[in-house]
Design a protein that fits this description.
With 720 residues, this protein is α/β, with parallel strands linked by helices. 38% of the residues lie in helices and 12% in strands.
Length: 720
């Protein structure tokens, strides 16, 4: 009897331990179960994220889409899209945006038992912001100038809170490009810095804070858009760098931000001929061109997923951009992107009219047919869709959409987005970013009583932020007694037209808004030189306020003082005259003028980039004129040339490195785990421990030992 009891105990132990060592992956997740139920067309749809920016009537008239239309409702019910991307055309009011998002989710839910939509946008802060009534914040390069990761976290959390209020759950931000080309026409002030480690620190802080609000963060533009002189919206840029060179610079912020928990990455439409050698014959030129990163298996699968260990969702930059649309057949582009390892095709078809919606139907059907006949790998499609579904599952988007209590959510959006408290904090943060790089003879601050100052701005509406700054100075008691400040636009005016505007001025503030290197040589820059000479001849001071690319500081060396603001965005109306809901506005221009007069607000920011010297033809040279970390203040006339670093007590991202190139598509993390090391893979909110191999091996050995003991006992009992 005792032997039977012992045998029974051993059997129970064997069954229990056997169950204990079954891997968790043997049980299908909700995402895997849903994938198994999808048709090929459903899977293709899940890999697409359209935009509904405009609608065009039969006569070709275009209007913004702020409410759901019958065409949008029909396509959302018919196709199980990954999500929808919103632009400023969709977000005219907080209430309207909230209702529009609600209608999109309800239309999607009406199409069947589906996960909710990813509702995304480009809310980087500063120059790229889509919430029309949101808080713009000063922008990434301004945050790099402040160089306090706690402020970067605060800014990201503020934007995340506003996006959540209107129903946006995914953000195509942060931009973690390293802006190491001063001639870059598209990144510029969107980058935190031209230093990879600085970008890594602020990018990681942004990711952590944004994720903390429940908004999915997206790194862009992989593997780096900072060293280009061509805008991929209008051309196909090429960067002639090796993989080793990228690992030493551009890839460092991406690796750090992946470790910080970034859940999505957006690709760059940029050719890297030393990395991706596969070619395609351009339909535009007929020339043989290398595949850009968006379509490169080497860059997306081997490097990003393999060497860098990213297992999240990869989205393309907009497929309708010229870099892709003008050179590649749209079906070839989709096939190549999927084969490369991309998950979401962003805006592959313009959906502005009934023809556009019909074209999307054909696009999905055609790609599904190509998948069914083997032209596109169904294995790649399944892997992509599963990553999207897991992203949704981990972010709570698999539950049925709750469309109730919309009025309460609308009111919450109105009470949350772009409110006075946020703008007040935005103002204080922005003042910390204003950087002074030249101040001959203590020209600034402008504290002498009774002086006349004329501010010259490029565009008519930019007189508004100047007037706002003056009103604020007066209200705060910081405008010198008897001071007169006037603002005029020099748009479409000759120097002869401008000279009467500055008549009698003691100080002239010239706002420079340059968007590309070519503008350093144009007539406007020459006119600024003439104005500087004229002002100096009359004993006045000439001051430059740089509001776009800060590299123009090298151009205006005739100025007595140069102050950098990092954001070329104006104000639609004076904020003091605003109603409860008003359009977003750029705080940087008025903050810069305010600080020119306020000795109590001495600049403390340091350059987050190197500003190169120009040659006689106004081309950038290899000589640095103003070094990264340089900045002046009013307290001392001597420059502080020591680079500013993040304070020791602040949380910073670890110095990031890229793993050596792997021989296959296995990630560096997976390789470590396979060798028995402990590793943690973080994807958004979930953390999966992969260092359990030793425990499982011990459990298996115990099972084998108990099984052997059971066998011996059983044999002896049979003999007896």
């Amino acid at each position: 009897m005792k032997k039977r009891i012992l045998s029974l105990i051993l059997v129970v132990l064997f069954v229990s331990l056997s169950a204990a060592v079954v891997p968790a992956s043997a049980t299908e997740s909700t995402a895997e179960q849903y994938l198994a139920s999808m048709s090929t067309e459903d899977k293709i749809s899940m890999m697409i994220m359209p935009a509904f920016r405009w609608k065009t009537d039969s006569e070709g008239n275009r209007t913004n889409v702020t409410e759901i239309t019958d065409d949008i409702t029909e396509t959302l019910q018919k196709h199980s899209y990954a999500g929808v991307i919103l632009f400023s055309q969709n977000t005219e009011t907080n209430a309207g945006t909230t209702r529009f998002v609600d209608a999109l989710q309800k239309a999607n839910a009406a199409g069947g038992d589906r996960p909710q939509l990813l509702i995304s946008t480009d809310q980087e802060g500063g120059n790229v912001t889509r919430l029309t009534q949101g808080t713009m914040t000063p922008g990434n390069m301004a945050l790099g100038a402040i160089n306090d990761v706690n402020i970067t976290k605060e800014v990201a959390a503020l934007m995340g809170k506003e996006m959540t209020a209107v129903g946006i759950n995914a953000d195509f931000a942060p931009d973690v490009d390293v802006n190491n080309n001063p001639a870059n026409p598209v990144i510029g002030v969107r980058a935190f810095s031209d230093d990879a480690q600085t970008v890594a620190q602020h990018g990681s802080a942004f990711v952590e804070a944004l994720n903390g609000t429940g908004v999915i963060s997206t790194l862009k533009h992989f593997p780096g858009h900072g060293d280009t002189s061509t805008d991929s919206h209008t051309g196909l840029p090429s960067i002639d760098k090796t993989y080793e060179q990228l690992k030493q610079n551009e890839l460092i912020p991406f690796q750090a931000c992946i470790s910080a928990g970034a859940q999505m990455i957006m690709t760059a439409h940029i050719v890297y001929p030393q990395i991706e050698t596969e070619t395609y014959v351009s339909k535009l030129t007929g020339d043989t061109i290398n595949l850009p990163a968006t379509l490169s298996k080497t860059i997306i699968t081997d490097i990003l997923r393999g060497d860098m260990g990213f297992d999240g969702v990869v989205a393309t930059d907009a497929m309708e951009m010229d870099a892709i649309a003008k050179h590649f057949d749209k079906y070839d582009a989709a096939r190549l992107a999927i084969d490369a390892g991309v998950d979401i095709l962003l805006m592959p078809v313009e959906m502005r009219s009934k023809d556009g919606f019909a074209e999307m139907d054909r696009y999905i059907t055609t790609l599904a047919q190509q998948a069914d006949n083997g032209a596109i790998s169904i294995e790649k499609i399944n892997a992509a869709v599963l990553r999207i579904l897991k992203l949704k599952e981990s972010n709570g988007l698999f539950g049925k959409y709750d469309g109730s209590d919309i009025e309460s959510r609308v009111q919450n959006a109105v009470d949350t987005v772009g409110i006075k408290a946020s703008h007040d904090r935005e103002w204080e943060i922005t003042k910390k970013a204003i950087t002074l790089v030249k101040n001959d003879d203590n020209t600034l601050p402008l504290t002498t009583p009774g002086q006349k100052t004329v501010v010259l701005v490029p565009y008519d509406d930019e007189t508004i932020p100047m007037q706002y700054a003056v009103k604020k100075l007066a209200a705060d008691g910081k405008l010198p007694e008897g001071a007169v400040v006037e603002a005029y636009s020099y748009r479409n005016k000759t120097p002869a037209d401008v000279l009467p505007m500055i008549e009698g001025a003691d100080n002239v503030v010239f706002m420079s808004e340059i968007y590309g290197a070519a503008a350093l040589k144009n007539d406007l820059a020459k006119a600024a030189d003439l104005l500087a000479d004229t002002v100096h001849q009359k004993g006045g001071k000439f001051i430059v306020m740089s509001v776009s690319l800060p590299y123009d500081a090298a151009r205006f060396q005739k100025a007595d003082a140069i102050m950098i603001a990092y954001l070329p965005r104006s104000m639609p109306v004076d904020p003091e005259d605003k109603v409860k809901e008003m359009q977003q506005y750029g705080p940087n221009m008025p903050a810069a003028l305010y600080m020119m007069f306020s000795k109590d607000d001495a600049p403390t920011a340091k350059l987050p980039i190197n500003i190169p010297q120009l040659d006689e033809e106004y081309n950038f040279t290899d000589t640095v004129l103003y070094a990264r970390g340089f900045g002046l203040t009013y307290e001392t006339g001597e420059p502080d040339t020591q680079p500013q670093t993040t304070r020791p007590e602040e949380t910073t991202a670890p110095s990031a490195t890229i793993a050596p190139a792997a021989t296959d598509a296995t990630s560096a993390t997976q390789k470590k785990t396979a060798s028995g090391d402990s590793a943690t893979t973080t994807g958004g909110k979930g953390t999966v421990q992969t260092g359990e191999a030793g425990v499982l091996i011990l459990a298996a050995l115990l099972v084998l030992a108990l099984s052997a003991l059971f066998a011996v006992r059983y044999t002896k009992s049979k003999k007896q």
